[in-house]
Write a structure and sequence with these properties.
Layout (H helix, E strand, L loop, with lengths): L1 H30 L6 E8 L2 E8 L6 E10 L2 E11 L5 E6 L7 E8 L3 E4 L4 E2 L55 H9 L5 H31 L1
Antiparallel strand pairs: 1-2, 2-5, 3-4, 3-6, 6-7, 6-8
């Protein structure tokens, strides 16, 4: 009786242990890193292109993500980064000014668990990122052009021609000439007229005397 109970107890313990092992194995597989927990997307940051990779591995297994650009069968490596995922998702970013409809291969390596590409390959959108429009500078005001010399209207900076000052009007206080002086000025006479007339009379007298003496001497000579 005791042996039967012991055997039954051992069997029950073995079944419980196996069930627990299966449960732990299933839980471990559920928490293990898987390629399905990775996703990639091509985005824009203003005029610049980006490729983002999201890791939603709840186990937090460290992984290495590599991105390759595919161009007519030739691949070029864009970049490589490490990531440690979480249930909420951890995002890593690669700077890549992708062209519309460009194709990329994204490879994930997580220890000995994952060594695969994200399927299908990433295809960029058909529309490129918009280029920022530069602000238009304010148009400076155009200064008034100065016309060439001798043509057009002179500019405001050209100095005006000096004007000839008008002759000053005679002052009302200036003494007016006497009536006699005005007549003398018109005939060319001056205030020395009397003196000149006296000298002229004296010269006429002297000349007349000289003529008289000359005639007298000539008459005396003829008588002899």
């Amino acid at each position: 009786m005791n042996r039967r109970m012991t055997v039954r107890a051992l069997r029950a313990l073995g079944v419980a242990t196996a069930s627990a092992a299966l449960a732990l194995s299933a839980a471990g597989q559920a928490l293990a890193c898987d390629i399905s927990e990775f996703s990639a997307e091509a985005k824009c940051d203003g005029p610049h292109g980006l490729i983002t990779v999201t890791d939603k591995d709840a186990s937090g297994t460290p992984a290495v993500v590599s991105v390759f650009r595919k161009n007519d069968g030739v691949e070029q490596k864009v970049g490589q980064k490490e990531v440690k995922g979480s249930g909420e998702g951890v995002v890593i970013t690669f700077d890549e000014d992708w062209k519309p409809n460009a194709e990329y291969r994204v490879h994930v390596m997580a220890g000995n668990i994952v060594d695969e590409d994200i399927k299908p390959d990433l295809t960029a959108p058909s529309t490129a990122c918009q280029t920022e429009t530069p602000s238009t500078p304010a148009t400076p005001s155009t200064p008034a052009s100065t016309p060439p010399a001798g043509t057009g209207t002179p500019s405001a900076t050209t100095s005006a021609s000096p004007t000839t000052p008008a002759p000053a009007a005679p002052s009302d206080n200036a003494p007016s000439p006497a009536v006699g002086e005005s007549h003398l000025a018109e005939t060319g006479a001056s205030s020395n007229t009397g003196l000149i007339a006296g000298i002229a009379i004296a010269l006429v007298a002297v000349g007349g005397g000289a003529v008289f003496l000359g005639l007298r001497r000539r008459g005396a000579s003829s008588e002899r």
